[in-house]
Amino acid sequence: MSAVPQQELPRPGGFPEIRYKRYVPKIGPSGLALFSGITLMCTLGLYRTGQGNLERRELEREKVWSRIHLIPLLQAEADRDTYRREVAANEREAEIMKDVKGWKAGESVYNSKRYTPQTYVVVP
């Protein structure tokens, strides 16, 4: 008795489809929307940086000019202070050297006109 081989056949309606492709759902904005948004943000940031640089430059210029205009006032104040200190030093010198004959307070002890006294403040 010989048996007739029987071939296996698919079931009625066929086998289900095998998913071999990657299935990623579309979530979020498209690439074009992301690129446009990033470009817009970078442009806005660079614009604001440029405006800030202009403002900073204007404030720096204003500070420099205010210092330039204050220089004469500060120089006059320094001159008054130097004069006041010189007068006080001459008075102290006259008080200390009052017993020395021929001593003139405030007169240079050097025989040359090239020497100019230094103007600095000694802080104890």
From TrEMBL:
Key words of the record: Electron transport, Membrane, Mitochondrion, Mitochondrion inner membrane, Respiratory chain, Transmembrane, Transmembrane helix, Transport
Coiled coil (UniProt feature): none
InterPro entries: GRIM-19
Locations listed in the record: Mitochondrion inner membrane
Main location as per UniProt: mitochondrion
Organism superkingdom: Eukaryota
One GO cellular component, as annotated: mitochondrial inner membrane
Membrane topology of this protein: Single-pass membrane protein
A Pfam entry, by short name: GRIM-19
Role description: Complex I functions in the transfer of electrons from NADH to the respiratory chain. Accessory subunit of the mitochondrial membrane respiratory chain NADH dehydrogenase (Complex I), that is believed not to be involved in catalysis.
Stored PANTHER family: NADH DEHYDROGENASE [UBIQUINONE] 1 ALPHA SUBCOMPLEX SUBUNIT 13, NADH DEHYDROGENASE UBIQUINONE 1 ALPHA SUBCOMPLEX SUBUNIT 13
Similarity-based family: Belongs to the complex I NDUFA13 subunit family.
Protein name: NADH dehydrogenase [ubiquinone] 1 alpha subcomplex subunit 13
